[in-house]
Amino acid sequence: EAGVTQFPSHSVIEKGQTVTLRCDPISGHDNLYWYRRVMGKEIKFLLHFVKESKQDESGMPNNRFLAERTGGTYSTLKVQPAELEDSGVYFCASSPQAAHSGTPGWTEAFFGQGTRLTVV
Amino acid sequence: AQSVTQLGSHVSVSEGALVLLRCNYSSSVPPYLFWYVQYPNQGLQLLLKYTSAATLVKGINGFEAEFKKSETSFHLTKPSAHMSDAAEYFCAVSGSGSARQLTFGSGTQLTVLP
Fold it and tell me: Is B40 near chain A, with CB under 8 Å?
C-alpha cells in the first residue's frame, strides 16, 4: 500500500512568487491534514479536510494560503504571494474515517515526507 | 486548549545507555498522546500512542512510554540505545473527540555516541 506522497520534496522560490504543494493521501483516507514546521519551531497544524470539505482551517496563517482537496482525493496548498516567513517544511498527513464517539480505536495519522519550501 | 512541552531540544546518550526523552502536556479534555520519530530525510513515523487504555504503552523499536496523569507526563524511554535510534523525536497530543489534529512539542534531537 502506497503511503502519503508529497510533491515536490524541495522548492526554492523568490519572494512574491507562487508555489503549489501537493499531497496524495493514502487511498480511502477521508481525513487529510496539513502541518508546517518553521525552522527551529514546533510542527503546527494548518488545516483539516474531511473528504472534500474543510473541517478546520483555524491554523492557516493568512489569506495568502489556499488549500483545496479536489473530489476528496489529493490536496493542494498554494501560497500566493510567498513571503520569506513562509519558509519551512510542510507536512501532509492522512487517516481513515474517525471512529464514532464512544467506540475505541483511534487510528493514527500517516505522514508524508514533507515539502521543504525555501523563499529567498 | 492543548500544549506540549519537550524538555531538552538535544539529548546525547552513549550506545547501550538508557534513553529518556521528556514530554509534559496540558489538555482541557482527556488526551490522546503520541510519540513520532523523524529519521533524516524521512517523514514522521508513529512510535507509539496512548488512547486511554493501558498507561504503559509499548511501541516499535523497543521504545515505551508511560502516561502519568498526576504528573501530566508521557516520557519516552528505551533501555539500551542503538546507533540507529539517532533521530528527532516529537511528542504530540490530540483530543479524543472528532477533532483529531495534533499539537506537537518542539522536538528533541537524539544523538547516540559510539
Answer: no
Half-sphere exposure of A70 (CA within 13 A, CB side): 6
Q: Say how far apart CA B7 and CA B105 lie, in whole Å.
A: 9
A33-56 residue pLDDT tens? 999 999 888 999 999 999 999 999
Dig out the grid coordinates for B18 from the structure: 538508557
Among the listed residues A65, A66, A48, the one whose alpha carbon sits nearest the alpha carbon of residue A57: A48
B57-74 residue pLDDT tens? 999 999 999 999 999 999
Write out chain A residues lying below 8 Å of B43, CB-based: 3-4, 91, 111-114
**Among B50, B66, B3, residue whose Cα is nearest residue A44:** B3
> Of A65, A79, A72, A89, nearest to A24 (Cα)?
A72
